[in-house]
Design a protein that fits this description.
Blueprint (H helix, E strand, L loop, with lengths): L34 H8 L9
Protein name: DUF3990 domain-containing protein
Organism: Blautia obeum
Length: 51
């Protein structure tokens, strides 16, 4: 499975954590398996988009 994350910075070493900390934007970040959605996310805000 390929997953995409859109950001303004590179996530060099993503971690997989199993935890019940469920607040939005806690330890994790949003991913999608839809490239078009990742492109839309990447083009929001200022800065150079990275997918």
């Amino acid at each position: 499975m390929e997953l995409y994350h859109a950001s303004k910075e590179i996530v060099q070493y993503p971690e997989i954590r199993k935890a019940k900390y469920t607040k939005d934007f806690s330890w994790g970040f949003y991913c999608t398996n839809n490239m078009q959605q990742a492109i839309r996310w990447a083009n929001r805000g200022a800065g150079e988009p990275i997918i």
